[in-house]
Write a structure and sequence with these properties.
single chain; alpha+beta; Tetracycline Repressor, domain 2; 2 domains; 28 strands; 31% strand; YbiA-like_sf; NADAR domain-containing protein; NADAR; 6-blade_b-propeller_TolB-like
Amino acid sequence: MIKPYILLISGNHITECIYAFTDPFYPSFTLPPPQPNSPGDVQLNKNNPIRFADGSNLAAGQGCNSRGFSYYEPSREGFLTTYIDSNEQNTSITDIIYATKHDQLFARTIQSNHAYLASYLAGKLLKIELDCNNGLLGCAYFTVGGESSSSLPTIITNGTPKIQTTLAFMSSHSNALTNLKQPTAIDIDNNSNIYILDMWNTRLVEWAQNATSGTLLISDNSLSNDYDILLVPNSSNEIYISDQGGHGIYLWTFGASSPGMTLQTVNDSQHTLNNQMGMVLDPYGNLYVADTGNNRVVMYCANSTVGIVVAEDNNSIPSFKKPVALAFDSDLNLYVYELYREFSNFYPAPIELDGYTWPTVEHYFQAQKFVSNEMHFKNILGLATPREAFDYVRTYKSLRRSDWENVKDDIMVKACLAKFQQHPKLKELLLSTGDRTLIEHTKNDSYWGDGGDGTGRNQLGITLMKIRDYLNNHH
């Protein structure tokens, strides 16, 4: 399985927060156990670390908050884990979500020891009862099969079996209120009423507790390309809707024929919201939006229609690319999940090449600049992070091999091909991009990237597209 990759935004700093766990379901690809002091990891609460389920045992992960957190793996299989302090077990938490519409999407929320999951392809809404065991509110391994209404997720858990309930599912392709088709987001109020963005039916519906059908709240064709919803605090009839196609966030009153307000403007005169995806509210009613197309997070203060950029890609490492989901911990640190982070050469996917195991593609690529200098070659091999490998070469740039400009493209192809061939889940993710153009969007590189304005060569994007074509033709 792929490691979840999350960025922590705390104060003015953006930090990598990479989790490691052992995955028994993929014994040929076992990740190392957590290293609390390893570079790149974040540990905010050593006494209450997040715990991940490995199918038989609980392993302590790097604690990114003490209140609650969970993640979804970008494939048809995944883990749902949530850790909550024992004195906060009944706290309602809307947690971070990673989603890909080309495979399987789960939108979920946690409330009162239950997980609510909306399955995009299978057209189902599920309620899973989670046991509390030594601070672990719930952990479940799930798989989802097909679009058949009888194909329910399989839940494999530690300890006491959890209760699985199907609240709503697709029994036909009709638009009846008893059915769902491609639900993309859910939220839940204090009375456990569930609000579902039913995308294929271009509507928002409410399911009350123990209901056998939904209640129509909003119906509009503009809901055909929406991503996320959030109930408005202190309101019983308003909701935020993130509309990817319309380039804005709608504030919509239930029953209205159109949104009452559209949030689109940002205090950056050059860019309005673009392909915005996930949203989260802080306790003060400020709305945070993952402005995916602009590689940034934008905050709209309560009662304001002009957004403020609170985090963006500033050409530093770690980079800040394609944020898709947001979450706060109890200390109001903001966590961001990035789309297609796995395509970065810094992504922690070890590769076997030339008789060595390289921690990342970046390690291998930078070491090839000193292929005839054994000391520097092995020094790079032993560095803990890709950033260190990148910086090391800058220090000894004068010793770089003389033919580098002639061979660097072939070396990049070799390293990236090994990465996607040796990690099936990464290969699956790359192939899921279909025939779309892949761009390394960065201001500080006009050769491997697009220069930030589209004038760059984008050689890394070209490399990935060539590898995608090769993999498609050599199954």
